[in-house]
């Protein structure tokens, strides 16, 4: 199940990458268009905007992975809490059943003693 979740997370990261790459390529093409008309964009400054968008892609990828890890940790903690509560409930139910059985046995023993005493007296 974790492998499927990781694949799903990777799939989401791929979508983020594609979105950011499309945005960065459209931004760089528009900046290249403006640079060709204005001749103010040198190749190094155009490449730096592309590399900064690559940094954004990496940051987004790291953030998405961090969110996936945090969600997994929260799910594990919730499952552990639910299991502990279930075990406590089962233990309480078992203790209550044992107490009820003991009380019923004690009452039956007293009834038998009283009945035996009545038979002996008569």
TrEMBL record:
Superkingdom: Eukaryota
Stretches that traverse the bilayer: 88-121
Region (Disordered): 23-51
Keywords for the protein's UniProt record, in alphabetical order: Membrane, Transmembrane, Transmembrane helix
Biased composition (Low complexity): 24-51
Protein name per the record: Uncharacterized protein
């Amino acid at each position: 199940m974790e492998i499927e979740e990781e694949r799903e997370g990777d799939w989401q990261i791929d979508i983020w990458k594609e979105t950011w790459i499309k945005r960065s390529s459209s931004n760089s093409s528009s900046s290249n268009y403006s640079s060709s008309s204005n001749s103010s964009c040198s190749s190094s400054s155009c490449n730096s905007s592309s590399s900064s968008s690559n940094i954004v892609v990496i940051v987004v990828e790291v953030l998405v992975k961090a969110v996936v890890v945090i969600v997994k940790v929260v799910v594990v903690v919730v499952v552990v809490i639910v299991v502990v509560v279930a075990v406590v409930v089962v233990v309480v139910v078992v203790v209550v059943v044992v107490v009820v059985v003991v009380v019923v046995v004690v009452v039956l023993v007293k009834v038998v003693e009283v009945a035996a005493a009545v038979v002996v007296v008569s």
